TrEMBL record:
Pathway: Cell wall biogenesis; peptidoglycan biosynthesis. It catalyses: 2 D-alanine + ATP = D-alanyl-D-alanine + ADP + phosphate + H(+). It comes from Pedobacter nutrimenti. Its main location: cytoplasm. It is an enzyme of class 6 (ligase). It holds the Pfam family Dala_Dala_lig_C. Its cofactor is Mg(2+); Mn(2+). Belongs to the D-alanine--D-alanine ligase family. Signal peptide: none annotated. It is found in: Cytoplasm. The keyword Kinase does not apply. The gene is ddl. Residues 128-324 form the ATP-grasp domain. This is D-alanine--D-alanine ligase. Mg(2+) 2 binds at E291, N293.
Length: 328
């Protein structure tokens, strides 16, 4: 019998644009023989199902159901495709946990912790062969002194919203006099900021997922961009960055990466598909953890679809296995 799946998209942050594109890719690749899919849009105004042939129908949030032509539809599970809040920070996961509705992502606690870059780094720091850049975490209404930050960290540094994604509000600071401008930009997105030393090296990203009961590391992608860093434009504009999947890496480097990211997945108690961004210092030197995305983009230009293809798997089969593993 077909599973009834709610594909949840939209959101309440600037990342909703990416979410809508991700949901389009997922919808095209969910097997219609196995799943009845209802795309549900979540916005500041409400949660709605929009059938092609009629007006939008509001979701009953008491039990997460929709009533269609007098028939109440309840879902076997939810494919969450919302980047940023409330999809990636644990809020929706907590709601679905209370209703007993399974979903495709990490649980509420892991989602909430991993949304905070500073807290995540503190947890993964103990993993063998994993390094993190020196950093300072500051709060909007807290007492911080830019002079002390400049003393503690070596230029250049990255200034990033602690709870954001898609590189929105992020800056690379190469001149100490530009620090305050970068802080103001990041504080527009979040009330917590992470300032970290720049690590020179090659930048990579890799998907990690549990399929058929086993943690699977997808082929690694190397990211090279002519821009100062891999920002929102480089991420979502075709041609701005060069992405090589699978990355040209020595066998030993690949094995070391797989071992480290598997431990990150386990230590953070992940489930579903996550994406881990990292830098190899110099050429293929020390592994520096950058961040983890618990709801990575699934757009036509996103990394996960590229990596699934490089693994020789169809997205259709990948999503089927993902739903089987997380929803049942």
């Amino acid at each position: 019998m077909k599973k009834i799946i709610a594909l949840l998209t939209g959101g309440t942050t600037g990342e909703w644009v990416v979410s809508v594109k991700s949901a389009a890719t997922i919808a095209q690749n969910l097997d219609p023989d196995k799943f009845d899919v209802y795309k549900i849009m979540l916005t500041q105004q409400g949660w709605f199902y929009e059938p092609a042939d009629s007006v939008k129908i509001e979701v009953d949030r008491n039990d997460f159901s929709v009533t269609l032509k007098g028939r109440k539809i309840k879902f076997d599970g939810v494919f969450i495709a919302i980047h940023g809040s409330p999809g990636e920070d644990g809020k929706l996961q907590g709601y679905f946990d209370m209703l007993g509705v399974p979903y495709t992502t990490c649980d509420a606690l892991t989602s909430a912790i991993t949304m905070n870059k500073g807290y995540t780094k503190a947890i993964v720091q103990g993993i063998e062969e994993l390094f993190v850049a020196r950093s300072v975490q500051i709060f909007k209404n807290g007492a911080y002194k830019t002079e002390e930050i400049k003393k503690e960290l070596k230029l250049p540094y990255f200034v990033k919203p602690n709870n954001g994604g898609s590189s929105i509000g992020m800056s690379k600071v190469t001149n100490q006099y530009d620090l305050q401008t970068a802080l103001d930009k990041a504080f527009n997105e979040d009330n917590q900021i992470l300032i970290e030393e720049f690590i020179e090296g090659r930048e990579f990203t890799v998907g990690v997922v549990k399929l058929d009961g086993k943690i699977t590391v997808l082929p690694v992608t190397e990211v090279e961009t002519a821009k100062e860093f891999f920002d929102f434009e480089a991420k979502y504009t075709p041609g701005v960055a060069t992405e090589t999947t699978p990355a040209a890496l020595k066998k030993e480097s690949r094995e070391r990466i797989e071992k480290i990211v598997t431990q990150v997945y386990q230590k953070l108690n992940c489930r579903g598909i996550v994406r881990i961004d990292f830098i190899l210092q110099g050429g293929e030197g020390d592994f520096y953890f950058i961040e983890i995305n618990t709801i990575p983009g699934q757009t036509a230009t996103s990394f996960i679809p590229q990596q699934v293809a490089a693994m020789g798997m169809k997205l259709n089969d990948f999503y089927t296995k993902l739903i089987k593993e997380t929803i049942g």
